[in-house]
Amino acid sequence: MRLSSLLLSTLILIIACSPDDETPDNPGGLTGEAATPTYDESLIPEPQPLNNLISNGDFESDEAWFTCGGAQVGATDQGQSLIINTTQECSEAGGITFTVNAVAAQEIELTAVPELLTVSFLVRAEGAIPSLDFNVFLTNAPNGTYGFGTNAYFLGAPSQEEGGAGGWNRINFLVTRQDINTWLDAPSPLFVVFEAQDFTATSSTTIYIDDVIVTEGVIRLTQPSPMPDALQNYAGNSRLIFYDLSPEEKLVATMLPNGTDRVIFNQVDATIVDGSPQWFDDNQFVLSQKVFNPEAPSDATVVPGGGSDVTRYNSIDGSQEVVYITRGEPGVFNFSGAVDNRAALDVEVRRTAWDVDRNRGILNVCGRNRSPEFGLNSDDICWLYLFDTNTNEVLNDEVYGFAPKWSSSGKLAYYYDNQLFVAEVSGSAITPQVVYQRSGLLQALDWSPDESTLVFAEVVSSSGIINSEDVVIYAIKTLDIATGQTELLLQADHGDLLPNLSWSPDGDFIIYSMNTEQGAQIWWLEVATGTTGPITNTTNGYAVTWRK
What we know:
Elements: H1 5-15, E1 33-35, E2 66-69, E3 71-76, E4 79-84, E5 100-108, E6 116-126, E7 134-139, E8 152-156, E9 169-176, H2 177-183, E10 190-197, E11 206-216, H3 229-232, E12 240-244, E13 251-255, E14 262-265, E15 273-279, E16 284-293, E17 302-303, E18 305-314, E19 320-326, E20 331-332, E21 344-354, E22 360-370, E23 381-388, E24 393-394, E25 399-400, E26 402-406, E27 412-415, E28 419-426, E29 429-437, E30 441-447, E31 453-459, E32 465-466, E33 469-470, E34 474-480, E35 486-492, E36 496-503, E37 509-516, E38 519-526, E39 532-534, E40 541-546
Antiparallel strand pairs: 1-14, 2-5, 3-4, 4-11, 5-10, 6-9, 6-11, 7-8, 7-10, 12-13, 12-40, 13-14, 15-16, 16-18, 17-20, 18-19, 21-22, 22-23, 23-24, 23-25, 26-27, 27-28, 28-29, 30-31, 31-34, 32-33, 34-35, 36-37, 37-38, 38-39
């Protein structure tokens, strides 16, 4: 369901207003309450070994692998990797009707077929991968028959997009016991096979494979490490701001990067908020709090419209100021299918961002039609509005976008429609350029301190389905803006990654939020090593941002 024309016209009208008499009197008394540290190193578990059911998955030698044709083990930027091209033909892959140019296979060490099997590997490509010309499958009859048929279960055909677009990408395939028993002649022996067919259109294509892992259950590559000294003793006065979930209610809190000097602001209502709390300057933070119109409807048929109060809080003198408001329009719901039902209009500030000089901000305003009837909500449409912090006025016409972040020199980076944008901002003009595009992007990103790189996250390819539920795993990566080169930092398979990434002022760490078995937690990621671990393992928290 699309947004109605009513929404579009109302949105322009609503966000053009200023708070004026809706700004409350200074309540004073905004004080922080000291709390216990959020991190305890003794709670970091010992690393658990990963049971890989194949040998030599890192290809440091060619032992254990059967290779044929244009498949060979050789040197790459990962050390030794499997290299696949179509310069030769695999004469041993007989019994099929098409040419096979390269095959690499190894038997999986199974005593019984497990309930679930994961096949995981890193892949990178030079050149385009024609559709279905590079295949990964399981078979129990590898000798002489590597092609499709009753003896093979097709896992997937990684595309150019999945092939690493300039960098390594991890692909996971999940296979159930039922699939293996249904599609293969016998459950054992079982082989994993990488196969390249005739790259006739692009003979220059080369595919690199590394770190092949076959294991029972859903793979868990990432394990927590103790917090490094560089974060334990982080230089400078930077603090983190986040939502603290340890009390009975959600509250705004700040802490040092190592989890000490934790301060909770009990007077700030963060019960219903949009996005993350954002630093405005060293002493002030901004919160977008959800409101409804009407706040308490007297008629049960009225569906309140959602809006926002964007409020700036001063942690030193206790003052607060509503710097911007949006108000939605109420709808009507009599009964399901009634002709005079009308969807409510939500107009909400989902994100805010403030430039280094604190003279400009970005209000990320999203609108949608919302109905109590199931399935009748519209998709969100989101705009970026340039905001003058001195006059509290909007400066530009709307630009489609979400999750904006300022660079230190005044550029904008943001997400929209599975694309990452970088934009020049001059006066009231925002001039964007697409720097990365791929399906499955997480709606979060941030700048490196030197502005050369973005951190972002995208879905690990072919994550799979278990018990009719999607298994979605994200990879945290960096993007070199000038070259388009991506680098895989971390497969975030130790929980459900939340749309929250923030790069440290010194460039050495990225912090992120995720839902884990212990609840919502904030984790650090060391850029140079790819190691990671929790900042909050004695409490729960999320939506974290560095003070820069």
